[in-house]
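Blinded run. Sample ID left blank on purpose so nobody reads anything into the name before looking at the predicted structure. Input follows.
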Amino acid sequence: MTETLSSAEESAPPKRRYAPLAANENREDYSLRFAAHSFRKWSPFVVATTALGGIAYLADFAIGASIVLSYGFTSGVLAILAAAVVIFVTGVPIAAACAKSGVDMDLLTRGAGFGYFGSTLTSLVYASFTVIFFSLEGSIMGQAFELALGIPLPVGYLLATLIVLPFALYGMGAVAKMQTWTQPLWIAGLVLPFVVVLVREPGKFAEFAHFGGTEGAGSGFSAIGFGLGMGVALSLIGQIGEQADYLRFMPEKTAENKRSWWAAVLAAGPGWVILGAAKQIGGALLAFLALGVVGKTHALEPIAPYLEAVKPALGPVALTFAALFVVVSQIKINTTNAYSGSLSFANFFSRVLHKHPGRVWYVLVNCGIALTLMEFGAFGFLNKILGFYSNVAIAWIGAVCADLVIAKPLGLSPRYIEFKRAYLHKINPVGFGSMLVASAVSIVAYFGAFGPFLAAFSPLLALVIAIVLVPTLAVATKGKYYLARENTVMTAGADLRATHTCSVCGDPYELPDVADCAKQDGPICSLCCTLDSTCHDVCQTAGPVLLGLPTARTP
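Blinded prediction complete.
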């Protein structure tokens, strides 16, 4: 049992007592809840810096190298840039919604057309994203350990996993400090190889522009190569979820901070892909330059091309610096992968099992699965893993984006994000159905059922289907599956910072995290509502409960 009921006074109702780790918000970080205004103590700049620190990953180098080496410079670079445009456009409304509403990607998905249990599937999709990229990034760190210290890869993979645990276990406070302190070294290390190449061999940039790849693709444009390359790059579309996990801690937007608020949201939300695309192209350049020295296999491993690029400038300390840069980069990103993965796994299991031992336990689950993938050589199947995954991820993101951009402005769905079990249907066919259909069709296309052209462009097919289906199904269902009943607590003009004491756990929570519970005949926090396995959603048939309790402003 992860929670136990105390034997309080006989006349008093029993209170839920959370496990110590789940009750410690300094580690828990409101992992399954609305991020309370009182907890959002960071400035827009600090939140943005922390979120952008999570994109230090070098898998971008490997992804860009893989795309350009496979499909040539023209098709590969255009594919990277086109994918970046799609990711940026779909990321803007998601980032803004999470920052404004104080919710993570899972809670956003619940209220954006998927329903309470419908979003459990996307929790696993998102969790798989964090696991896949943790394994890829950990593999890169293991390669650095092997090259610099001679540590065997299996041992290096284990070290790469263990090294991020102290940061991921302690939540936003520790992550923010780590990302801020390591940022100067990371930026210097990122820029250095390209400065060296520009100074010593500027003509190599022109040679790179005529590179035809290593598999006979040629330097000209190929529609099939463009589509396949874009599919691999689009697998990164799920990164907006990791950005949102930090953006939920943005302070409330005011007239005074409006400009800095929007700058931070755009930079730390969809803006990650600008640097991400540049890193992919840069990684492809370094792989091209090192190809004749290290061979194709090692050219796809970021540490080897990076080392070859900085050797002329750093001489005997080049290997040490390259290894340090790789390790710092991978700690920054895999801390985010482990942190975000823990949120997603916690959301999934809390709804399925009605138990919550604490977010930190799911850090271990996330890292354990990723380590297994590393040991089984997931890095060697980079293109295939990412190409397939992008079909599902883009269907999910497309459905959420369509709800925010089309359904809500048109009044086809509630204009606010409702994430609490008490007010949601288990399944909303609008978003959930759109994702299933879009994913199924695009996966069938990916395996060649509709010919080579649609096989190459299957992720875009998933995006188009999801965006079209969401408003279509919203109209067809008249939006009746968005809310099981009206939220009578969040009334117009209500004080969102006012707190109510949960009648189950006895702790105070701000109004957006509170529902009216017919079983308890009083207020209940969203997590206690989630964990109740005996109420059978009685509140959705019993009608609203007037809370009638005094409220107090939070500090």
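Unblinding after everyone has recorded impressions. The beta strands are 3-5, 16-18, 498-501, 508-510, 514-517, 522-525, 552-553.
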